[in-house]
Design goal:
The chain has about 210 residues and is of the alpha/beta class. The protein has 2 domains: about 150 residues, Rossmann fold (3-Layer(aba) Sandwich); about 45 residues. It has 9 helices and 7 strands. It has a 7-stranded mixed β-sheet, sandwiched between helices. The radius of gyration is 18 Å and the shape is elongated. Bound molecules: S-adenosylmethionine. The site of S-adenosylmethionine has 17 residues, from strand 2, strand 4 and helix 5.
């Protein structure tokens, strides 16, 4: 499966859905085609990006199945939206969006980096992580599906770093192998003490994944 199909497969049937930072609108198109979600909202901070999505999804917008809003983060998304997807942004940007807005009832998040920080944020806010895994579509992607409340999961450092459901998977092992090579090369060149410590800690976690 490709990245978009992976993300859509995690989407639950719902009465209202928002794709925040939709860009071209491909994910929303997949969701709309599946017929799983009603009342689809697409948003983007960039009017230019949103215009691309509006063009792609014109038949759904004209048919009243989809609505487009240009806004920053969750500013234009009703708080009672059942399910919100935020994909293709950095983990810190996603944390900012959730902190400045709200944590949706159900969410699917696909951070491009800093997935560990995002996990920490979600767990620290009492979220229940339903699926916290990794997939590969040319590149490796972490994906987190969860709910706003009901979470009391105790994560180990390695689960926090790479996702609870990734542990033991062949995909994570492949990821760890590739990252280890990069981190060892970085460590060789690095002279800054704090930075060396960070890389060494990460190498330890990556090695644990391969055991
Ligand atoms: C790399 S694209 C990802 C597009 C799509 N979500 C995907 O995963 O294929 C990131 C999109 O997020 C939008 N974006 C970045 N920060 C945003 C924010 N704070 N609020 C809404 N959209 C944002 C950008 O304009 C861009 O269109």
């Amino acid at each position: 499966m490709g990245r978009i199909e992976e993300l859509c497969a995690l989407t639950d049937p719902c009465a209202s859905f928002a794709d925040v930072g939709c860009d071209h609108g491909y994910i929303a198109r997949h969701v709309l085609k599946s017929g799983k979600c009603g009342n689809v909202l697409i948003t983007d901070i960039s009017a230019k990006s949103l215009a691309k999505a509006e063009k792609l999804l014109a038949e759904y917008i004209d048919g009243g199945l989809c609505r487009a809003v240009c806004c920053d983060g969750l500013a234009g998304v009703p708080t009672d939206t059942e399910q919100v997807l935020i994909a293709g942004m950095g983990g810190e940007e996603i944390i900012k969006i959730l902190s400045e807005g709200f944590i949706p009832h159900k969410f699917i998040l696909q951070p491009m980096k800093n997935a560990d920080k995002l996990r920490k944020f979600l767990l620290g806010n009492g979220c229940k992580l339903i699926y916290d895994g990794i997939f590969k579509d040319e590149k490796f992607y972490f994906v987190i599906k969860g709910e706003r409340s009901g979470g009391r999961q105790d994560y180990s450092p390695v689960q926090l770093a790479f996702g609870r459901d990734s542990i033991g998977s062949q995909t994570l092992k492949e990821y760890a192998q590739a990252e280890l090579e990069k981190d060892r090369a970085r460590l060789e060149k690095c002279v800054d003490g704090i930075q060396r410590e960070r890389i060494t800690d990460r190498i330890k976690l990556l090695t644990e994944v391969l055991l």
